[in-house]
């Protein structure tokens, strides 16, 4: 009679990790700089979108991702400028610094729900950007930080394009493993908070504890994305961490599908690539994102991942009378 | 106010003393006192806006009281957060159907057991008779919001009981149910009382109140207007004036 073990990984978690494992080979599979650059940006976008995804699992739409990306990015770069270039130290630092900031911050903002949470996280991103502009001695202010030493792995410098991409892929793999572990282990808890927080609490669930845990991990993953971005651009700059980036990462997660870990990955892969092909006409990318967002909201609430899962279910059981009709609503939530 | 009859001093489960709740200048509850012994059943009736749901909200820690104390087995639980009150054994049900909508019946029960710290075969064994009685047992795989309304409502009650309560606070368990379905509420209440659980039931269905409750309190504008056995209390002119007349008409129309 009992439901299956709550912490077991599903096919989606394994698929997500397998995809990032495969991407680890890309730096050696191609020398095409354009491909490497797109893959690198997809990885950064996917990491940021995973951070958004974790919060969406609890029905919290966070605009604070760029703020945590900035904290991780600046922390890592400042470390390299102070002589600590070992990635085995600066990658954990890029996770831990935003995670530690998120802990007290969470106590304040996680009381809020719905549009109030959205607004406050939006303001956090704005405030942090302002702080970056206003503290030139520490963060370079409007100039940002550039010309910092390349990170090293056990003494080997990771400065060529291939190493930069390999490092991004390794961090994205780590982010996927952490996200999969967290969201699979607390699947029922997060789903209960998403579906009916009041009921969950009245049955004894310590809701704030799970929200805080999610917020802290999401901040850490965003921080790794921030370091990855700085490492690719060879600079960290306040304009990389604004509200526009928050909108982009949210769009990746929602168009990709908020119900499955594959959603944010699919969303980032598709949208980063498409906006790259639109090249100089960046404004068209924003327009396209908007159109896609309307489309997803109207016809495919589960996003790309949800639509694919629904299709797969339909193909698997074409003759079951109630099959497609019964599968559709479940799939609309990403078939979680 | 004296503790209500039925609660023998020393063995009472829940004791509410002089409870008050004010929202700004608005007095929602004032001087509410009662006690429940293990297995006891108290009905709370009153017109809409009398403070019945607020009483449940205050006892379960959803909103802090403005005054008074709440004791569970002698322990002061006033102002504790909802999850802590729930873990200590005071669990509520909700007026609207309240389940985890996207989850199956099985997942709903499993979550209730897990969140209350009672996951495992014993927990399932405890709720199995209720799942059988309500016809939920054959529908464990169904998504809860696809169930007929009456079954969703019974699932909501089952979830509250799954959380292993010592005291259950039921907020209009029969609201929205067909008349034929309302006997399930009787079954539920009888079952949980037989298991030693105290029940406080807020209800508008007077037939159900008369049937089930050996004693009731009538709330009006946040104060206790009357208290005692339903036959006696419901015959009082002030109670009829405040509540029963208006609702009896509404009940017929429903």
TrEMBL record, chain A:
InterPro entries assigned to the protein according to its UniProt record, in alphabetical order: ABC_transp_permease, LivM-like
MF terms in GO: branched-chain amino acid transmembrane transporter activity
Keyword field contains Transmembrane helix: yes
Alphabetical UniProt keywords: Cell membrane, Membrane, Transmembrane, Transmembrane helix
Subcellular location: Cell membrane
Any Pfam family: BPD_transp_2
Membrane topology, as annotated: Multi-pass membrane protein
Protein name per its UniProtKB record: Branched-chain amino acid ABC transporter permease
UniProt source species: Caldovatus sediminis
Automatic annotation (TrEMBL), chain B:
GO terms, molecular function: ATP binding; ATP hydrolysis activity
Residue intervals of the ABC transporter domain: 14-246
UniProt protein name: ABC transporter ATP-binding protein
Native organism: Caldovatus sediminis
Highest taxon in the source lineage: Bacteria
Keywords, sorted A to Z: ATP-binding, Nucleotide-binding, Transport
InterPro entries membership: AAA+_ATPase (IPR003593), ABC_AA/LPS_Transport (IPR051120), ABC_transporter-like_ATP-bd (IPR003439), BCA_ABC_TP_C (IPR032823), P-loop_NTPase (IPR027417)
Gene Ontology annotations for the cellular component aspect, listed alphabetically: plasma membrane
SUPFAM superfamilies in the cross-refs: P-loop containing nucleoside triphosphate hydrolases
């Amino acid at each position: 009679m009992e439901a299956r073990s709550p912490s077991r990984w599903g096919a989606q978690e394994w698929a997500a990790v397998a995809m990032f494992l495969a991407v680890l080979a890309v730096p050696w599979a191609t020398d095409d700089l354009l491909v490497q650059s797109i893959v690198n940006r997809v990885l950064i976008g996917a990491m940021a979108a995973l951070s958004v995804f974790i919060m969406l699992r609890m029905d919290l739409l966070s605009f604070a991702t760029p703020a945590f990306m900035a904290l991780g990015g600046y922390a890592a770069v400042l470390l390299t400028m102070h002589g600590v270039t070992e990635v085995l130290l600066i990658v954990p630092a890029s996770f831990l610094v935003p995670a530690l900031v998120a802990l007290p911050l969470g106590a304040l903002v996680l009381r809020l729900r719905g549009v109030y949470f959205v607004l406050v996280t939006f303001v956090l991103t704005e405030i942090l950007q302002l702080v970056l502009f206003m503290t030139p001695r520490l963060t370079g202010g409007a100039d940002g930080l550039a010309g910092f030493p390349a990170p090293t792995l056990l003494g080997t410098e990771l400065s060529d394009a291939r190493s930069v991409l390999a490092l991004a892929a390794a961090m994205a793999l780590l982010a996927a493993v952490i996200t999969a572990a967290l969201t699979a282990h607390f699947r029922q808890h997060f789903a209960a908070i998403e579906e009916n927080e009041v009921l969950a609490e009245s049955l004894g669930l310590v809701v704030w504890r799970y929200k805080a845990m999610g917020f802290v991990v999401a901040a850490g993953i965003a921080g790794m994305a921030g370091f990855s971005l700085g490492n690719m651009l060879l600079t960290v700059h306040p304009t990389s961490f604004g509200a526009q980036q928050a909108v982009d990462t949210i769009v990746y997660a929602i168009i990709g599908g908020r119900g499955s870990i594959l959603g944010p990955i699919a969303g980032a892969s598709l949208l980063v690539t498409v906006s790259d092909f639109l090249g100089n006409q960046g404004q068209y990318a924003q327009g396209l994102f908007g159109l896609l967002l309307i489309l997803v909201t109207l016809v495919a609430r589960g996003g790309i991942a949800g639509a694919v899962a629904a299709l797969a279910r339909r193909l698997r059981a074409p003759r079951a009378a109630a099959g497609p009709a019964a599968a559709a609503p479940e799939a609309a939530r990403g078939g979680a | 106010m004296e503790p209500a009859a039925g609660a023998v001093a020393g063995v009472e489960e829940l004791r509410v003393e002089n409870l008050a709740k004010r929202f700004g200048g608005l007095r929602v509850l004032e001087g509410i006192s009662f006690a429940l012994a293990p297995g006891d059943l108290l009905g709370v009736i009153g017109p809409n806006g009398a403070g019945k749901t607020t009483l449940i909200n205050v006892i379960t820690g959803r909103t802090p009281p403005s005054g008074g104390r709440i004791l569970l087995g002698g322990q002061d639980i006033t102002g504790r957060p909802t999850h802590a009150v729930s873990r200590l054994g005071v669990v509520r049900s909700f007026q609207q159907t309240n389940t985890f909508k996207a989850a199956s019946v099985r997942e709903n029960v499993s979550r209730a057991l897990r969140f209350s710290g009672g996951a495992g075969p014993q927990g399932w064994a405890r709720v199995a008779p209720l799942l059988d009685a309500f016809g939920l047992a054959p529908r464990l795989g169904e998504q809860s919001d696809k169930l007929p309304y009456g079954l969703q409502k019974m699932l909501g009650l089952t979830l509250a009981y799954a959380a292993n309560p010592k005291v259950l606070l039921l907020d209009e368990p029969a609201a929205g149910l067909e008349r034929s379905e309302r006997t399930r509420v009787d079954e539920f209440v009888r079952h949980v009382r037989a298991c030693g659980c105290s029940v406080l039931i807020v209800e508008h269905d007077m037939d159900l109140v008369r049937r089930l409750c050996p004693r009731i309190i009538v709330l009006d504008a946040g104060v206790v207007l009357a208290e005692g056995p339903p036959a006696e209390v419901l015959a009082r002119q002030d109670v009829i004036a405040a509540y029963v007349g208006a609702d009896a008409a509404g009940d017929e129309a429903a």
